[in-house]
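pasting for ref
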Amino acid sequence: MIYTTHILFALLMMLSLSFYLHFPFSAESLLVVILGSLAPDLDHPSSYINKKGWRLFSLSALTTHRGWTHSLIGAGALTFAFFLIARSSPFAPFYSLFFFGYVSHLLIDSLNPSGVAWLWPKKKRYSLNFVKTGSLGEILFQLVLVGLILIFACHYYHFDYYNLLE
């Protein structure tokens, strides 16, 4: 999936956490969830996160795309690395949200025909073969995500959208 799909899904998941579990929604928490949602693609030299100044953290020379970084081991390892880097900053309490964003990336990539090796080093990839990266299907999926985000945002902020129809 392309980076915008990962960001939209992470935003939807963050709104869901906030709405259903009353998790605090803030700019900081959203930033960390989005960073986590892009982190698995540090293994791809042409990924958005690598092209936008994060080359210092690039893992593309150390692994192949959708290798260990696209697994639960990768989620744990990079969340731990995030915690170590952020532990003396205001972002330290949000390490669980980094993990949440990371796993959202893996969930969305599981919709792709290439799938995800959730249990790496086991080679088996799990895929629902639902949406191909960059396809019209992905664009339509993004539109659905935007619609769901708007619905959750209206509920979260108690927007009375029913009165707009009167």
